[in-house]
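Bench notes, afternoon.
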Amino acid sequence: MNDTILQVSSVPARAWVAVTALGISAFTIVTSELAPVGMLSMLAKDLNQTESGAGLVVTAYGWVAALAAFLSGTMPARISRKGLLVALMLILALSCLLASQSHTMHAFMTARIAGALAHGAFWALIGTVAIQLVPTGKLGLATSIIFGGVSAASVLGVPLSSFIADMAGWRHAFTAISLLSLATACALFWTLPTLAAPQPMRPSVYRSIIKNPVLLSLYAATACIISAHFAAFTYLEPLLTKTRGIPMASMSGLLLISGLSGLMGNIIAGKLIDRHIKVLILTSLFLSAVALGVLGMKSFASLPLWFTGMLLSIWGGSMAIVFVGLQTWLLRNAGNAAQPASAIYVAIFNAAIGTGALAGGQILAVIGLQSMVLLAACVIICSIAFVLRLKSPAR
């Protein structure tokens, strides 16, 4: 008990303010990434594209961000990590501003790719920054705060950008995200301390990461889980409205429930994940797969609205815990190779988002929407095998 109090008191208040600023950064980045999903029809109409053609923006963004995350591990040590994080948020702000002024698909895609480059590099660095701000024993709490920005983007950022697009047009929505990115860059500049840059990583470091069975299992689990999750999540609206008969007027409320559950999942992770990481991840994977599987079953299509809301709550909250858990587990096992290991992780994560969205569309065209969701649930269940074979990391 005394050790815990001493550990908390040894963390300066400014460190937690900086962690919170990183959480706001995560909110801004994810809002920028997923904003086109809520305004796809408007984008397609203004840029003279089909909706499927406009949807490629989401896939391209994920893949470019993945490449940027992977390459970020080779950045020279002489580059200030604090300055780099601020610069990346400024690039994201410029990207969103240019996107708001685009009148062709080519211009819009170019602006978005610039933002994706900043996105991938930022996420590859953000985990290693948390290590420098708080002690290892509080790394799970810090990671949950940062990833809380991801859940908050689902609750507020994406719906709000969609609302602005409906009220004033999609260009104003991207302008608002640009201003938020600029404000976030200022917050990071004022709150982050000077950050130590890791030494340049040699190819041998990457070889050691690839040979590490724990990290390989975490990477494999991440690829399976995130691909399956986004294959289903990307098509959540048609799943609920077309197969379960949910009226469009109820969609915003259900999405809000899902997002709030994600925030609750982050709170639970912050409280428990430092002590019970493996059990928490395994339980969350099982619950999310069950909830997703029931959503995809035709026999449950006529159940009441509150039951659908409960399933979305279980799915959203469980996946939020999994996101925090996998990142925390990776950072604890990577040791001195935290930056390149995190870069690979973020690359896999973002590539899985793009791949999941693309694969989901292709699979549902062949076997149908509900069968695709059931398949996604099965993939999540199978991913439990990767986690079961791992030993819980040391605190």
